[in-house]
Amino acid sequence: MASLEELRKTRLEKLKLLKEAGMDPYPSKIHRTFCLGDAKKNFFEYEKSGQEVSLAGRIMAIRGQGAILFVVLYDGRGKFQAVFKKDQVEEKLFKLFTDAVDIGDFISVTGIFFTTQKGEQSLAVKTWTMATKAILPLPEKWHGIQDTDERYRKRYLDILMNEEIRDLLVKKSKFWDVTRSFMKDHGFLEVETPTLEVTTGGAEATPFKTHHNDYDLPVYLRISVGELWQKRLMAAGFPKTFEIGRIYRNEGSSPEHLQEFTNMEFYWSFADYEDGMELVREMYMRIAQEVFGTTKFTTRGHTFDLAHEWTKIDYTEEIKKQTGIDILKATDKEISKKLDSLKVKYEGTNRERLIDTLWKYCRKNISGPAFLVNHPLAVAPLAKTVSGKQVAQMFQPILAGSEVGRGYSELNDPVDQKERFEAQQKLVDAGDTEAMMADHEFVEMLEHGMPPTCGFGFGERLFAFLADKPTRELQMFPLMRPRE
Predict the structure, then answer these.
(1) What is the pLDDT of residues 48-58, one digit of tens each?
(2) How many angstroms separate the CA atoms of 260 and 176, rounded?
(3) What angle, rounded to 10 degrees, do the helices at 351-363 and 332-341 form?
(4) What domains can you pick out in the chain, each with its CATH number?
């Protein structure tokens, strides 16, 4: 088998042949009557009239030899067969095609539509021209790129050769289209908030830090889709807002966690977390039905139906049921001991982290659909308190053993918020890189008054769960280390 460099050298020689024949291998424009997807729609009309048409695309296959060649073209909209017959194409053009053209090249072909004896819609080629000469070959058709690192590094080839991934990326785009339509149908205004922040807020995560040269100050890439900014818009009088955008978290990678991804967050004034749960259930069902055509899914070893009743799971009671630990009464030492006995790894010894780690052990046993409620205040620094209880007005949809969203009755008491920020700041000072930074200007906004508000957010992780694929697999271009 020829090496890649040998194949490259051969194709460079073919490039030279094209130029010597007077054919531009990289023209700025080529003939095309319509895309290949529309070729099939217009086939019978043009076949009947005998009118010439021009098609263009990348060559994905060449069959036959001698006097007749069958060439499969692909342009991202569809595939179509072009048939080269030696007695119908000018002799020097036919020879140039056989001598200088390879699978992977882009060409334009002009001819007449006809139906083959096997009933396949085709184009009988009269003339052709090069659109782009490829110097390197495509991966082998049936196996594609096998090495995962190479697939992600050469994602353009992986997408080209892997129809399943290509279709999923199209579905992912539709996933966000349906989400956007749903929010607008329910009266939410789409907004844009800053991605560079002086203090990060709205989540607990380690941010990416950079420097603003003009202002000469450190800034951070946002870790939420503008939570503290959208709440300011509630104070400004907007009743409903949402944003779909990229967020950045400088933390570990896993099949379900990335450093850069897309999230959606909405904020709804004069609504609480009970209202939020109803809206989210409706939204998830609409996304599932319109994007996947079903509400029933099997993923990560779990089976669930979004059309079934969504049960409410009490955070404290579920942990107690599965582990015997009452997190409202247990000491940090007791929780640590239980984690050790369960062989669960954990970092840090502050109470918030210990409780969250214990919950993550328990959630894997819940298929859903369900809403996790009654979170301890320690893990919900931006949520209102349930009246008479030390738990938060917070909810999280649970599917396939994991949370796929988070919502609150948002805290709008400035005194309470200031105290919670101060508690988070102590964690920051103690070295907790994921604790929330204090935002004193946000507290000042609350002092001016923010209406009762429900906020909720979810990310592309939901799509990955419904598609039953790792989140990284569904990134169009995953971040890769540079080659050494």
Answers:
(1) 999 999 999 99
(2) 16
(3) 40
(4) 4-138 (2.40.50.140), 158-310+368-474 (3.30.930.10)
